[in-house]
Amino acid sequence: MIKNAKELLSKYKQGTISAEEKQLVEDWFMEYGTDEKILLNELQIDDVKAEMWQVVDRKRDKVRKLKLWPRIAIAAALALMVLSAGLLYISKQTGPDLIVAVKSNDVAPGRNTATLTFSNGQVIVLDDQKNGVVIHAKALTYNDGSKVVEERGLPAAAQQMVATTPRGGTYQIMLPDGSRVWMNAASTLRFPSAFTNLKNRTVELIGEAYFEVSKDREHPFIVKTSQQAIKVLGTHFNVNAYPDESDEKTVLLEGAVNVNGRETLSPGQQLQIGSDGKASVDNVDTEGAVAWKNGYFLFKDVPLQTIMRQLSRWYNIEIIYNGQLKEETFNGLIRRNSNLSRILKVLEKGGVKFNLEGKKLIVTP
Fold first, then answer.
1. Which CATH code fits 111-289?
2. Which CATH architecture has domain 290-364?
3. Its pTM surpasses 0.70
4. Which residues lie closer than 8 Å to 28 by C-beta, 6 or more apart?
5. pLDDT tens readout for residues 165-206
6. Using an 8 Å Cβ cutoff, are 246 and 218 in contact?
């Protein structure tokens, strides 16, 4: 019996599971947390896994309606995610659970979409069936090797290029030096079409991007934002520099970076800098910073307004507040490929009401 459940979970993680089997696995997660006496901690995770396997086996012939999972601690949720790769979880620091409203309309999640703009004004709309583009000196290809445009359609000389993802869009860019950039929604990256004969490999960012920089000690890689000049030689880091956020954040995952010639970060550290230029460095959980790149929203003591800004960018919706926000924070783990209604249902279990009217989301705290 347990062997069958293990195989089911393995299929779930690999994405080869059927719709019915997927429902069975998620049903266990959603049902288990509805017992008010259950509060998992890290020492209980192994016991939970064993019981989960048995419950899934017993339920193979009985598909039930999903229930929300409001009471499982965030540490347990993250650990179980490694097995399930698809659970939903949300909790709020204060306030009772409320009945979830049924939505009459819905909004699909963001997708792979972006444009490339050349200095001569030429704009190329990138294929939304692809997920990445490779910048060569004389040609553009997708990361599967297919051509973006015929070579005769490209400007001949090296020049500045701009990659732009709209609200509801994401894309990967491989720069001429082999560095890889994952662009989040509503972001802009400016870069040269070739780094040849340049002392520094300088790019400019508005929005959010994750960088894996190719090592080149002779030619430092510099990311410029409105508040930062991030200098690296070869490393992995995430930069959040949206204009509508109060602070810019740089989180280092590997290697070392220097910010504004003053602060040097070590892996696991975050530099946060406000519009007044004041900076602070703290140790952080890097999973939260790159969750978007890995296909999740991950909230750890995050205010509702911050969550709404993320949803607004990813689902390309307008947020309208009906009433004054309370000083509350949320914890949660939600897949980014979910339709908006599913995420709202989970958030509503934290005591917030939503009314979706087309592309306008009315939030009642």
1. 2.60.120.1440
2. 3-Layer(bab) Sandwich (3.55)
3. yes
4. 52, 55, 56, 59
5. 999 999 999 999 999 999 999 999 999 999 988 999 999 999
6. no
